[in-house]
Amino acid sequence: TTLTAERAGVVTSIDAEVGQVVSAGQVVARVAESSEREAVIAVAESQLAEVRAARGFVVQVGQLPGQYQGVLRELAPDADSVSRTYTARITLKDADDSVRLGMSARVYPQGEAAAPLSVPLSAVLDENNRHYLWLLDGKAPQVKRVEVKLAKVSSDTAWIASGVRAGQEVVTAGVHLLRDGQTVRRLTHDPAQPVGTQAK
């Protein structure tokens, strides 16, 4: 027989084999609409209340510049039997053709922690399961250690949920060698790259 989708889109998966006998209502193929983009995320039970209460979401897609605004379209009523997380679908507003199916995305509830600041992972000092950054202060920069809360960590980047604000300058090299009040110097650097400092 011939199956016709009710709207145009892209086939993302086929769940039946050629010649297979299927029953009424069985999923044979999945089609994603090309006119709308969604971010699909797994929500832990501890985060359900935050997701439900969010006025909106900030979505960072792959390595694309800028951010997209998102709204919650669907939140699964039941947890996945394997991961024990709830699937949420966030519709991206004004997504352009650069947002392609299958791209990775980071989603943050709108608000103070919606889009946490990021620093190189090398800037984070870990001591006794607590996390610190060294801030620069003064014309002859001296360092001051401040405790921060991490929102997320990847192989080379740490996202800061609280403890510092945008515009503050942090040490990105030699963080295990520093002490409060120590004078440091800035490394020679490309102005287009983040500023790093090192103990001297």
Characterise the protein shown here.
- The radius of gyration is 23 Å and the shape is elongated.
- The chain has one helix at about 50-55; strands spanning about 10-15, 30, 40-45, 55-60, 70-75, 85-90, 105-110, 115-120, 125, 130-135, 140-155, 155-160, 185, 195-200.
- The protein has a five-stranded antiparallel β-sheet with strand order 3-6-5-4-7. The protein has a five-stranded antiparallel β-sheet with strand order 8-12-11-10-9, with no helix packed on it.
- The protein is about 5% helix and about 40% strand.
- The chain folds into two domains: about 35-110, Elongation Factor Tu (Ef-tu), domain 3 (Beta Barrel); about 115-200, conserved putative lor/sdh protein from methanococcus maripaludis s2 fold (Beta Barrel).
- A hairpin with a 6-residue loop joins β4 and β5 (about 70-75).
- The chain is mainly beta and about 200 residues long.
List the helices and strands and how they pair.
Blueprint: E1 10-14, E2 29-32, E3 38-43, H1 48-53, E4 57-61, E5 68-75, E6 86-92, E7 105-109, E8 117-120, E9 125-127, E10 130-137, E11 142-153, E12 157-162, E13 184-186, E14 197-199
Antiparallel strand pairs: 1-2, 3-6, 4-5, 4-7, 5-6, 8-12, 9-10, 10-11, 11-12, 13-14
Low-pLDDT residue intervals, each spanning 5 or more residues: 190-200
Named CATH architecture of the largest domain: Beta Barrel
Order of helices and strands: EEEHEEEEEEEEEEE
- Terminal CA distance: 76 Å
| Main beta sheet strand tally, sense and closure | 5 strands, antiparallel
Please state how the strands of the largest beta sheet are arranged side by side: 3-6-5-4-7
Roughly how many Å is the radius of gyration?
Answer: 23 Å
Query: How many structural domains can be distinguished in the coordinates?
Result: 2
Number of strands: 14
The first-level CATH class name of the largest domain: Mainly Beta
Report the oligomer: single chain
Work out the strand percent: 35-45%
Fill in the CATH topology of the largest domain: conserved putative lor/sdh protein from methanococcus maripaludis s2 fold
